[in-house]
Write a structure and sequence with these properties.
Shape: globular
CATH architecture of the largest domain: 3-Layer(aba) Sandwich
CATH topology of the largest domain: Rossmann fold
Keywords: ATP-binding, Nucleotide-binding, Transport
Structural class: alpha/beta
Largest sheet: 5 strands, parallel
Mean pLDDT: 95
Organism: Algimonas porphyrae
Number of strands: 9
Strand content: 25-35%
Protein name: ABC transporter domain-containing protein
CATH class of the largest domain: Alpha Beta
InterPro entries: AAA+_ATPase, ABC_transporter-like_ATP-bd, ABC_transporter-like_CS, ABC_Transporter_VariousFunc, P-loop_NTPase
Bound molecules: adenosine-5'-triphosphate
Number of domains: 2
Radius of gyration: 17 Å
Pfam family, one: ABC_tran
Length: 208
């Protein structure tokens, strides 16, 4: 379980999040709220990419900051945009991320190939990322998040810019993973989740 206690985030003098408290258990929670409410900010704080200005993040009851290495080993995170090393192939990029996560090479190769296949990148796995389309880059950015069977998966707009069929495959993978993981995600395409079971955590902009 991931727990946020009275989380606040301020950029300069601008408060973006204030008093956010919530427990996230196994399964999918979709973070909703109007543009600018702080959804991506909340995901970055949960993914330990940023530190909150105030409040606490707990993972399995322990402060995340005291066990950050352990937390990150259990984490898969796909932000909206990744600056890829364009000279690597998609497969080499996956293996690089897998190595950072501490996966043995054999398991890394097997998982990377399975994920690339499921996200429709198998044929292009050995092609340079420089040659990938925008949609292929998005799918690669998502694929890396699933490496290492994450216990916590954080996805910012995972199906944005994908066609309906590919978006459906991505949602299948997300909900399969959510059977054994805490999944937090944003999406402007909530209709595409019709028929699936998930929680909603709605956040609203702080009144000026
Ligand atoms: N690093 C930063 N420095 C300064 N302001 C920031 C920073 N990151 C986000 N903000 C501001 O925080 C607010 C919340 O941004 P955020 O991207 O989290 O919103 P969001 O709910 O995800 O929006 P959207 O639905 O449009 O993606 C915005 O006003 C944004 O300009």
């Amino acid at each position: 379980m991931l727990e946020l206690i009275d989380i606040g985030q301020t950029y300069g003098k601008k408060p973006v999040l204030q008093g956010v408290s919530r427990q996230f258990g196994q399964g999918v929670t979709v973070i909703t709220g109007p543009s600018g409410a702080g959804k991506s900010t909340l995901l970055r704080l949960c993914a330990t990419v940023e530190k909150p200005s105030s409040g606490q993040r707990l993972w399995q009851g322990d402060p995340v900051k005291s066990r950050v290495k352990r937390f990150r080993a259990a984490l898969g995170y796909a932000p909206q945009r990744i600056d890829f090393p364009d000279d690597l192939s998609g497969l080499d990029f996956m293996l690089h991320v897998a190595a950072l996560k501490g996966l043995p090479l054999g398991a890394a190769k097997a998982q990377a190939n399975t994920l690339l296949d499921r996200l429709g990148l198998a044929r292009d796995a050995s092609g340079r990322i420089a040659t990938y389309s925008g949609g292929m880059r998005r799918r690669l950015g998502l694929a890396q998040a699933f490496l290492g069977d994450p216990q916590i998966l954080i996805l910012d707009e995972p199906t944005a810019e994908l066609d309906t069929v590919t978006g459906g495959h991505v949602n299948d993978l997300i909900f399969e993973t959510a059977v054994r993981a805490v999944v937090l995600m944003t999406t402007h395409l909530q209709d595409s989740l019709a028929g699936r079971t998930f929680d909603i955590f709605d956040i609203q902009p702080i009144a000026a």
